[in-house]
Amino acid sequence: MSRKSFKIILWITFLTGTVIFAFFTPEKTIETYLLNILIAGVYTVTIALGNGMVNSYLSRHFSWVEQTKTRAILGIVATILVNFILVLFCNYINLIVIQKREFTGFFTGNMGFFNWLGINIALLISAVLHAKGFIEEWKKSTRKEVVEQKLIARSANAQFESLKNQLDPHFLFNSLNVLSALIDENPHQAQHFTGAMSKIYRYVLEQKDKELVTVAEELDFAQTYCDLLETRFEDSVSFRFDVAEQDLQSFVVPLSLQLLLENCIKHNFATSQNPLFVKIYSENGFLLIENNLQVREQVKESAGIGLSNIVQRYALLTPENVFIEKSADFFRVKIPILTQKTAVMTTQNPHESLAYDRASKRVKELKGFYGNLISYCLVIPFLIFVNLYTVPQYHWFWWPMLGWGIGLASHAFQVFGIGRHWEEKQIQKILEKEKNGNA
C-alpha cells in the first residue's frame, strides 16, 4: 500500500467514526468515540484493502486498454463477490463480536437491512475505484500514443527536410554537367542555357520547401526543362506531354518530373539514328514518365539520389506507392497524383486512423456506462433510505430500482454484449467492400 493510500484510509476512518459518533451515538464518551473509530477502521481498512487487491490483481493480468470487455466483466463479478464477503465479515465483527448481538438474527430484521445497505455502499465505493482505474489507464494510453505520434511526426519531418535538401546540390551538379558539355559543343547554346538555368533554379528554390505542388505547375517547369534538353541534344531527344486536363489541379511532389527526366537522360544514350523518346502522361490516378530503353554503359556507379528521393518523399506523404516498371523495350515510373494536400504530420494510414476513432468512441461508451452505474449506486440507496425513513410500510423504492436496473442492464448489454460484435462485423464488411471497389 502506498503512503498516499494509507493516509486516505486514515482520514476516511477518522471522518466516518466522528460522523457516526456525532449523529448516531446517543452516549457521548471517550470510550464510545474510540469504539466508533475502531469500527470505522475495521470497515474502511477491510473494504479498501480487499477492493484494492482485487483491482490491482485484475489490472496486472487484464489490461483496460487491450482487454476492455474481459476486464470489465471480471471486475463486475469479482467486485460483487468480494464486497459481499467483506461486508458480511465486517458486520459480523461489528454486530456479533463487538456489540454482542445474537447470530440468529444476522440475516433478518435490522441486521439484514444493515448487511444489504453495507453491501450497496461497498459496491458504490468499488465501482468508483474501478471507474477511476479505467479512466487513468486510458489517459496513460492516450498520452503515450500522443507522445509516440509526435516523435514519429518529428522524425518524418526531419527525414522529409533531409530529402528536400538533397535537391539543391543534386540539381545544380547535374545542370553544371550539362553546361560544361555545352561549352565545348556549342558556346552560343551554353550562353542561352545559362540564362534559362537561372530561371529554372529559381523555381527549384521556390518549390523545394513545399510538400506538394499542382500537376500544372510541375508540367510547366518540366516543359521548360525539356526545352533546354532539346536545345542541347537537338533531334536526339523527343518529349511528348499528354496529361488529362482533370488531373492538372491535383498534386505531386515538387521536382519529381525534373528528377525523372534527368534519370532518362543519364541512364540512356541518345543519337540522331537512335533517338530517345520520353512520354509524360496520366492514367488511372498516376502520372507516368516512360522512355524507350537504350541503356548507357555507366562509367561510374550512379548515386541513385533521384528515384530514391521521390520514393521516400511519397512514402512520408501518402500510403500510395511509386511503381517502377521495366521491360526489354521501355522503362516506366508511375507516381501517384494526389487529390488533396497531405501534411507530413499525417503519419497514420486510414486503417490506423479508423482504429483510433473507434477506440475513442469506445472510451466514451465505457465512461458513459460507468457514470450510469455510479449514479445508480448513489441514488438508489438514497431513495431506499428516504422511503424507509418516511413511509416504511410502503416500499415504493422497488419501482425506480427495477426500472433503472433494467435500463442499466440494457446499457451494459449494448457496451459489452453481442450487439457490439455484430456492429463491428458490419463495419468491417463495409470497409472491405469499399476497399475492393476502389481497387
Automatic annotation (TrEMBL):
Task: Please name the PANTHER family in this protein's record.
Answer: SENSOR HISTIDINE KINASE YPDA
Q: Which domain of life is it from?
A: Bacteria
Q: List the Pfam families hit by this protein, alphabetically.
A: 2TM (PF13239), His_kinase (PF06580)
The name of this protein is: Histidine kinase
Which regions span the lipid bilayer? Answer: 32-51, 72-94, 114-135, 369-390, 396-419
Single GO cellular component annotation? membrane
- Which part of the chain is the Signal transduction histidine kinase internal region domain? 158-236
- Record keyword DNA repair present: no
**Where in this chain does the record put each 2TM domain?**
358-432
Q: Which UniProt keywords apply?
A: Kinase, Membrane, Transferase, Transmembrane, Transmembrane helix
Molecular-function GO terms, alphabetical: phosphorelay sensor kinase activity
